[in-house]
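Quick note —
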Amino acid sequence: MEHFDHPESILATWHRALRRNGKVYVTFGPPWYAPYGAHMHFFTKLPWVNVFFAEETVMRVRSRYRSDGATRYQDVQAGLGKMTVSRFERLVKHSGFRVEWSMRETVKGIPVSRVPVIRELLTNNIAAVLGLAESTRR
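Predicted structure written out below.
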């Protein structure tokens, strides 16, 4: 999910293609505000580099290690759509799917589900099983 330019259209495509009792298994990580959500660990071990430094700065340093010409996160190969935990939850909520099961893997297993800012910063991976919401079943 963190690599799609338009994740809402991906969810819509899945929704149209899914059979009545079908399920979609989604797993991705790290989300944008995770310690290595910027996917820049190949040149820095500093967690949250995308939080501490401006995009221009990160991309300028990145250009010393990658010669693809990317100047924005979304320009890197495979793209970075800055998918956060809360954005994913909002997109799913408005997609016609319902979450049947979900799990968030957090840094060192720290339970953070009730603290929004901390949850964003410490969630490393998200997994969810989505089914069609009752109102959208065909």
